[in-house]
Specification:
This protein has two domains: 4-212, Spore Coat Polysaccharide Biosynthesis Protein SpsA, Chain A (Alpha-Beta Complex); 221-340. Helix content is 44%, strand content 19%. It has 14 helices and ten strands. The protein has helices spanning 17-24, 46-56, 71-81, 98-108, 168-173, 186-191, 221-226, 228-245, 251-275, 281-297, 299-304, 309-316, 321-324, 326-340, and strands at 4-10, 33-40, 61-66, 86-89, 95-96, 115-124, 129-133, 142-145, 164-167, 199-212. Helix 8 runs antiparallel to helix 9 and helix 9 packs across helix 14 (326-340).
């Protein structure tokens, strides 16, 4: 059995995919890794590059060539075929720090934690900066019981796709299946496995390089607004996923998932109450409908959002400013907050 399966979703990334694969396919760990590249209906030369790597590394690289189904469909396809003990996703425009990656794979050979967490960097293309993100209060190479830890050591952070390596069997036990043809499914990946999670370990290694700023990325603010229906689709799924399980979850898992949902909900409201440069009646109807949905579905999550100024005051005005000028109202709220804080 391979120690680690790496799934590489590929869509029109011929300019970047070679960098990604070269950072992973290191001689010292070739026998220990399975690299499943999933071509998601690319229209450029990506699949030809993947085929060349498959020929060069026949015992390590597998190519799945399929019709376009979105990022979630590639993870689903990779998980279905995965044979490694552990499972990790690396997007094809991202890459890894090869030196620490070799150390990481070697450590996994003797590992049995359900989840192994590492650090990562955001590579900000337009500014040329590299932002290092690390879990500063977690101890290196210590096995944690998720239900027993003080979640305060995470300092309000949570484990994301770029930092997470799960046992493959845990993901299958959790019945992980991401939405297809939908953005923001990484949030499903961050939440769905948690009810099955028992142990995790942090390895103080600088592994992932998250490439930010490429045109067309779903995290771009304009794309948030354009794809708001997809964000809401994922949001509703996860709210209902949580509501169906909250009574049986441990205290830590309940708190942890609700924290992630709070951040997601904040983003969902910001799409309407801040990011829109010009509001309209349809946008107002959409956020009012979602606000009503959330109140009916989980009043605790609903009330928690009162801590967010833009949500609190838009609710008081029945979301009037999402139609008038949400961006202006956001700036005004921030200004008033600064005045009140002195």
């Amino acid at each position: 059995m391979k120690v680690l399966t790496l799934v590489i979703p590929v869509y029109n990334t011929e300019k970047y995919v070679k960098r990604c694969l070269d950072s992973i396919l290191i001689e010292d760990v070739l026998e220990d890794i399975e690299v499943i590249t999933v071509n998601d209906g690319s229209k450029d030369g990506s699949v030809e590059i993947l085929r060349r790597y498959e020929k060069m590394y026949p015992n390590s690289v597998v190519v799945i060539d399929k019709e376009n189904g979105g990022h979630g469909s590639t993870v689903n396809a990779g998980l279905e075929k995965a044979t490694g003990k552990y499972f990790r996703v690396i997007d094809s425009d991202d890459w890894v720090n090869s030196h620490d990656f070799v150390t990481f794979v070697n450590k996994l050979k003797n590992e049995d934690a359900d989840l192994v967490v590492t650090n990562y960097r955001k590579e900000l293309i337009y500014s040329g900066e590299s932002e290092y993100l690390e879990y500063t209060d977690l101890e290196d190479d210590v096995l944690y019981d998720f239900d027993e830890i003080d979640l305060g050591i995470l300092k309000g952070e949570y484990f994301v796709m770029a930092t997470s390596t799960y046992k493959t069997e845990l993901l299958r036990r959790a019945k992980l299946k991401l939405f297809e043809k939908t953005f923001y499914v990484d949030m499903q990946y961050n939440i769905i496995p948690i009810p099955e999670l028992k142990t995790f370990k942090f390895l103080d290694l600088d592994i992932y390089r998250y490439f930010i700023g490429r045109p067309g990325q779903s995290m771009d603010l304009a794309n948030f607004v354009r794809n708001r229906a997809q964000h809401e689709k994922v949001m509703k799924f996860l709210v209902e996923f949580y509501c169906e399980r909250k009574e049986t979850l441990s205290k830590n898992k309940n708190e942890y998932i609700s924290l992630i949902l709070y951040y997601m909900l904040t983003t969902n409201y910001y799409i309407y109450c801040v990011y829109c440069k010009k509001g309209n009646s349809e946008i107002r109807k959409e956020i009012m409908s979602f606000d009503k949905y959330l109140k009916e579905k989980d009043n605790e999550l609903y009330k928690r959002l009162y801590a967010v100024g833009q949500v609190k005051y838009n609710r008081k005005t029945n979301f009037f400013f999402t139609r008038f000028c949400p961006n202006f109202f956001s700036k005004w709220i921030n200004f008033i907050g600064k005045v009140l804080r002195g």
